[in-house]
Write a structure and sequence with these properties.
alpha/beta; Immunoglobulin-like; four-stranded mixed beta sheet; 8 strands
């Protein structure tokens, strides 16, 4: 009988330790949002809700979008040059560990090369199924001399 009690207590102790270990990977409720990773020397920052972009020749701009999937540029006006793209976590739980998945920032860094106007078109789609477009964002861009 004494052995049975010891085994029962050992089982309870293991269960408590297992539950305590699980708590360490639960994201902290104090997690905060993170800003998008904007490259240095960017003149204008716009997101999908800002609407038209007005910049001057030689200036740079960053377009920031967040998603659980991928964003791609499908139409780049001739007067804009894509300098690079950045991705990053949208909250501290993703950055510091303890959370997997979730949305990511997508930042497109562009430079105005010549005066003119055009539409910058971006499409959101799953990376494994790029033909299945979930959302399209059209940003009118006006480049002045």
């Amino acid at each position: 009988m004494r052995v049975l009690r010891l085994l029962l207590l050992a089982g309870i102790a293991l269960a408590v330790l297992a539950l305590a270990a699980c708590d360490r990977v639960t994201p902290d409720s104090r997690d905060t949002s993170l800003p998008p990773p904007i490259p240095e020397a960017v003149t204008v920052v716009i997101d999908e809700w800002d609407g038209p972009a007005n910049i001057r020749v030689g200036q740079t701009m960053a377009v920031t979008l967040s998603s659980n999937f991928d964003w791609q540029i499908t139409t780049l006006p001739d007067n804009l040059e894509l300098l690079g793209t950045e991705t990053g976590p949208t909250d501290t739980a993703q950055r510091d560990g303890g959370a997997t998945g979730g949305a990511s920032w997508f930042v497109f860094h562009l430079k105005a090369g010549a005066p003119g106007e055009g539409d910058l078109v971006l499409v959101e789609a799953p990376g494994w199924e790029s033909e299945r477009q979930l959302q399209t964002v059209v940003i009118p861009v006006q480049v002045e001399p």
